[in-house]
Amino acid sequence: MAGHTQNDPIHAFFSECHTLTSQAKFTINALSNAEVGAVKSLIHRLYAIRSILRDVDDPTSNSEELEHLCDYVDSYLWPLEAFIDNPHPPPSTNIPKNQTGQRGRPSYSLDLNRAILLHNLGLSWVSIADAMGCCRKTLYNHLEKAGFIEATRNPYTLITDEELDDKIREIARDHPFIGSTIALGHLKSRWSIHVSI
């Protein structure tokens, strides 16, 4: 019987429908992060499912059940289509801007002290820039212009050669076949040691 359901095209179709509606549910719950192209593709596939459901000729399914399934698919189509009609604005539209009265695009007003604080807490510059609604390069440019360029560089850890050799020996004992890049990663993750090669 199990082999019969695996070869049954109706069963395979309903299984694919379930997968697609699960994906639609996930996308709807995360619409603020959704890409328009991905949502359009999902809408296209949901319409295809609804079209197939209307034409299914299966003796085990009655028309009332199939209509209920079409309504179920429609319940996912409506919020996705509403997103396409009114997509969320890009994050950069909410960043305060400095109006200088000069020609050209106004510059962003970024809270650089907060950015440095977040970086010191362990966040990457990329994730901080994403949270602020700009790209990493824009954040770097603002830090450089404000004289905080040193904040973008990882300071090297003050450590003696003997202490560093002890740490490297410990890493090599635990992981004898790793290279220098992985060893640097272990130094950073295990002891917050940042050194150059």
Word description of this protein:
The chain is mainly alpha-helical and 197 residues long. Helix content is 62%, strand content 2%. The protein contains nine helices and two strands. The protein has helices at 2-7, 9-29, 36-55, 63-85, 112-120, 125-132, 136-145, 161-174, 180-191; strands at 97-98, 107-108. A two-stranded antiparallel sheet has the order 1-2. Strand 1 and strand 2 form a beta hairpin. The protein is flat and about 80 Å long.
The N- to C-terminal Cα distance equals: 62 Å
Please write the string of helix (H) and strand (E) elements: HHHHEEHHHHH
Report the portion of residues in β strands.
Answer: under 5%
Major beta sheet summary: 2 strands, antiparallel
Could you tell me the mean pLDDT? Answer: 81
Spatial order of strands in the largest sheet:
1-2
Radius of gyration: 27 Å
Q: What's the number of extended β-strand segments?
A: 2
Helix-residue proportion: 55-70%
Shape: flat
Instruction: Name the poorly predicted regions.
Output: none
Q: How many helices does DSSP assign?
A: 9
How does the helix and strand content classify structurally? Answer: mainly alpha
